[in-house]
Specification:
The complex is a heterodimer of chains A (497) and B (178). Chain A is an alpha+beta fold and 497 residues long. Chain A is globular and about 75 Å long. With 178 residues, chain B is an alpha+beta fold. The chains are: A alpha+beta (497), B alpha+beta (178). At the A-B interface, strand 17, strand 18 and helix 15 of A face strand 4 of B. Strand 17 of chain A pairs antiparallel with strand 4 of chain B, so a sheet runs across the interface.
Chain lengths: 497, 178
C-alpha cells in the first residue's frame, strides 16, 4: 500500500479565490448599494465572518483531502464531519483532464479531473496538484490497467508519443471562421453585462443616442427615393459587417482558446492539449470512444476541410471542458482525415464504406412533411393580408422542398468493420460511426406513414454523451435486417467501459 | 435466483429464455381499463363544472345544445378509448427473451421494437405498485449504459415471471472484467 498524498499547498489560495468569485457580485451589490444609506458596521462584520468561514473551509478542505495509488485502484478521502472515501478502479477511468488557468500556470499547478462512466459529475476532482502529477497519474492509471486485467490483450505500450494533429494559427482562425462561435460569444457577453445594470443602462443610452443620428443626419439631405435606397444599402452593409464581425470574433476566440492545439497518441491514450491563457490537457483512451463523427459544413467543403468529434461515456454535456474535449480535431484537411479516422477507429477507411441510400420514395415523404409548415403559414398569411401573401408561400414552399431534397440526399447508412455508420444533415453534414461493441440497444421505429410507404427507421443507442445515432426513411426490410444484425453483433461482444 | 421462493427445475432462470414471442399477462388489460375508467370519470367530473357554467351562461338554446353535445362526445370518446386502448395495446405488444437478450415490440400506431443485448444489461429490477399488486402483476426495468434508453420498462408481466426474467437477465455467464 503506497503512501497517502495531499494536494499542493497553494490549493488553499485557489479555493479561497474560487469562493471569492462566487461572492463577487453579492459583495459588489452590497458595497455599491449598501454604502449610500447605511452607516452601521453590520455589513462589514458580515463580510469579515464570511471571509473567516471561507478561509476555514479552504483550510479544512486542504487538510482533509488525501489520495493514494493502490494496486488496481485510486483511493480518494475527504471531508471532516462527513468523511468520504471513494475507490476508483483504474480500468473504469474514462478520461483524465487537466485544466490550468493563467494563475495556476504561474504556480505550476493544475486542476485534475477524473471521469468514469457514471453520471454527469466527474468522479474525482483534484484542485490543485503540481503539473508533474498529471504525468504520474497517467502512467499509474495506465500501468494499473494492464496489471489489473492481464487477460485482456492490450496493445503494446508505446513509449513514444506520436503527433496526430497539430493546428497552426491559420488553421485555428479558419476553424473559428467556419464554426462561427461569434453569436454565442456576444450572447454570453450580454449575459454577463446584464448582471451589471448600470453598464446595461449606459449601453442602452449610447445605442439610442446613436441610432437616430444616422437616420436624421444621413437621410435628411437626400431626396426621398435615394433615401430609401441608401437606407437599404446602409442596413445591408450593417448586417454584412456585423456578420463579418461575428466571424472575426469567432476566429479570435478560437485562436486564444485552442492556441497550439495538439493531438498526440501514446499507446492507447489520446492526448489533446490547447489554450493560450487557460491550458487544457485531456486524455482519452481510444478504447473508450463511444461514437466517432465527421462534420462538414458548407465552408468546410469549400475549403476542403472537416471536423472530427468523439463522444465518451459520462462527462456531462453541461461542462464546458467536456464539451470542448469532444472535438478531437476542430479542423482537419480532407487528405489527412482518412488517416486520422483510422487512428481513432482501427481498421476503418472512410473511402471504403459502401453507403446505402434511403427508400426511393423517401423524398416524397420528406417533402410532404416539409411542406406542412409553408402551407399553414401561407394560409394564415393569406387570411390576414390577402392573396398577395401566396407569393411568400410559394417561396417558402420552394425553399422547404429544396431542403427536403438535400436532407434526403444526405441520408445514408453503411456497415463498417465491426460497426455501423449513419450520415445525414442539411447544410451541415454529419457522419457518425459506432462499433457493435459500443451499442447499448437498437430500436426499430415504424410510424403509420412509414407503414403505408413500406419504410421504417433505425435508432442505435450508445453510452456516448449524445446517445443515439440512426436514420429515418429506410426500406422496411433493410431496417429489419439492420436491427437484427446490430442486436446480434452487439450480443456477441461484451461491453467494456 | 435470489428471493424467488419457487425453486422448481422448470423455473430455472435460463428456462425462460426460450426465444418465443409472448404476450403480456391478460390481467394487465383489466388493470389498465380500470385505471382508464377512473381517469375518464375524473376527467368528466372535472370538466363538468365549467361546462355547466358555460351552458347556463350561453345566450341561445342552440349554443347550449352544441356545448353540451360537445362535452358528451368528448367524454364518451375518452371513456371509449380508455376502454379500448388497453386491449389494442395488448394485441400489439410482444416480447421475446433468448440467450442473447430481450426484444420488446409494441405500439398501436407508432410501432417500436427495441432490442437490448443481455451483455449490455447493467442491472435489472422488478417493481410492483399497489394497483399491480392487486392484479398480481409487476414491471420489469432493464437498465443499460445508454443515453436515450437508459431504462427500458416492460409493464404488465405476471409478477413471478417478471422476477424470473430479472434473474435471467441479471446473471452473466461471462464475467465482465473491463
Amino acid at each position: 500500500m503506497s503512501s497517502e498524498r495531499r494536494l499542493h499547498p497553494v490549493s488553499i489560495l485557489f479555493h479561497v479565490l474560487g469562493r471569492l468569485r462566487e461572492f463577487l457580485i453579492p459583495l459588489v451589490v452590497l458595497f455599491v448599494f449598501g454604502r449610500s444609506r447605511s452607516d452601521d458596521g453590520w455589513q462589514f462584520a458580515g463580510v469579515a465572518v464570511l471571509a473567516i468561514l471561507t478561509l476555514a473551509g479552504s483550510l479544512a478542505q486542504y487538510f482533509s483531502f488525501r489520495f493514494r495509488y493502490d494496486p488496481g485502484e485510486l483511493v480518494v478521502r475527504w471531508g471532516i464531519l462527513f468523511r468520504k472515501q471513494r475507490h476508483i478502479p483504474y480500468d473504469r477511468i474514462q478520461n483524465i483532464d487537466a485544466v490550468q488557468s493563467v494563475l495556476q500556470r504561474i504556480f505550476g499547478v493544475a486542476t485534475l479531473t477524473i471521469q468514469t462512466g457514471a453520471g454527469k459529475e466527474p468522479e474525482a476532482s483534484f484542485s490543485v496538484l503540481p503539473l508533474s502529477a498529471l504525468g504520474e497519474m497517467r502512467s499509474r492509471v495506465f500501468a494499473g490497467r494492464s496489471t489489473a486485467t492481464p487477460s485482456v490483450p492490450s496493445a503494446p505500450i508505446e513509449e513514444t508519443e506520436r503527433v496526430l494533429l497539430k493546428l497552426s494559427a491559420r488553421d485555428l482562425a479558419l476553424a473559428g471562421v467556419i464554426e462561427n462561435r461569434g453569436i454565442t460569444l456576444i450572447l454570453a457577453g450580454i449575459g454577463v453585462l446584464s448582471q451589471f445594470d448600470f453598464l446595461g443602462n449606459w449601453l442602452r443610452q449610447k445605442m439610442t443616442g446613436w441610432l437616430p443620428n444616422i437616420n436624421e443626419g444621413t437621410f435628411a439631405t437626400l431626396p426621398r427615393r435615394d433615401a430609401v435606397f441608401t437606407g437599404i444599402a446602409v442596413v445591408g452593409i450593417g448586417i454584412f459587417s456585423l456578420l463579418l464581425f461575428f466571424r472575426v470574433l469567432s476566429a479570435l476566440w478560437m485562436l486564444l482558446r485552442l492556441h497550439q492545439f495538439t493531438l498526440t497518441r501514446q499507446g492507447e491514450d489520446l492526448r489533446v492539449q490547447y489554450g493560450l491563457f487557460t491550458r487544457v490537457t485531456a486524455t482519452i483512451s481510444v478504447r473508450r470512444i463511444q461514437t466517432l463523427s465527421v462534420h462538414e459544413g458548407i465552408l468546410h467543403r469549400r475549403l476542403n476541410r472537416a471536423a472530427v468529434r468523439v463522444t465518451t461515456a459520462g462527462g456531462g454535456a453541461g461542462q464546458s471542458g467536456a464539451a470542448q474535449r469532444e472535438w478531437i480535431a476542430p479542423i482537419v484537411r480532407r487528405e489527412t482525415l482518412s488517416t486520422l479516422v483510422q487512428e481513432l477507429y482501427p481498421g476503418l477507411t472512410l473511402e471504403s464504406l459502401e453507403w446505402k441510400a434511403p427508400h426511393p420514395r423517401a423524398f416524397s415523404r420528406a417533402a410532404r412533411r416539409a411542406a406542412l409548415v409553408p402551407v399553414i403559414v401561407s394560409a394564415a398569411l393569406a387570411l390576414a393580408i390577402g392573396w398577395g401573401a401566396l407569393a411568400v408561400g410559394v417561396f417558402l414552399m420552394a425553399w422547404a422542398l429544396i431542403e427536403a431534397r438535400i436532407r434526403v440526399k444526405n441520408l445514408g447508412w453503411s456497415l463498417a468493420p465491426e460497426g455501423v455508420g449513419f450520415r445525414g444533415g442539411l447544410w451541415h453534414r454529419t457522419l457518425t460511426l459506432t462499433r457493435f461493441a459500443r451499442v447499448q440497444s437498437v430500436e426499430f421505429v415504424e410510424s403509420p406513414f412509414d407503414r403505408r410507404a413500406g419504410m421504417a427507421g433505425v435508432a442505435v443507442d450508445t453510452a456516448g454523451a449524445s446517445g443515439g445515432v440512426g436514420m429515418p426513411y429506410m426500406r422496411r426490410e433493410e431496417a429489419v435486417d439492420l436491427c437484427g444484425l446490430v442486436a446480434d453483433q452487439a450480443a456477441r461482444t461484451s461491453f467494456r467501459w | 435466483m435470489t428471493n424467488d421462493t419457487n425453486t422448481d427445475a422448470s423455473l430455472d432462470p435460463s428456462a425462460i429464455a426460450d426465444g418465443k414471442d409472448y404476450s403480456l399477462d391478460p390481467r394487465y388489460v383489466t388493470m389498465q381499463q380500470q385505471i382508464g375508467w377512473i381517469r375518464a370519470g375524473l376527467f368528466a367530473l372535472i370538466t363538468l363544472a365549467p361546462v355547466v357554467g358555460a351552458v347556463s351562461s350561453a345566450r341561445t338554446l342552440t349554443f347550449k345544445a352544441v356545448l353540451l353535445a360537445l362535452w358528451v362526445i368528448v367524454t364518451c370518446t375518452n371513456a371509449w378509448w380508455a376502454h379500448r386502448r388497453p386491449r389494442l395495446a395488448y394485441k400489439h405488444c410482444r416480447y421475446r427473451v433468448d440467450a442473447h437478450g430481450i426484444q420488446i415490440r409494441r405500439g398501436i400506431f407508432w410501432k417500436r421494437a427495441i432490442s437490448v443485448p443481455r451483455s449490455r444489461v447493467q442491472h435489472t429490477e422488478v417493481s410492483q405498485g399497489p394497483w399491480e399488486r392487486r392484479h398480481g402483476l409487476g414491471t420489469l426495468a432493464v437498465h443499460t449504459a445508454g443515453v436515450q434508453h437508459s431504462i427500458v420498462l416492460l409493464n404488465g408481466l405476471e409478477y413471478e415471471r417478471a422476477l424470473r426474467l430479472r434473474d435471467h437477465l441479471l446473471i452473466h455467464e461471462t464475467p465482465d472484467v473491463v
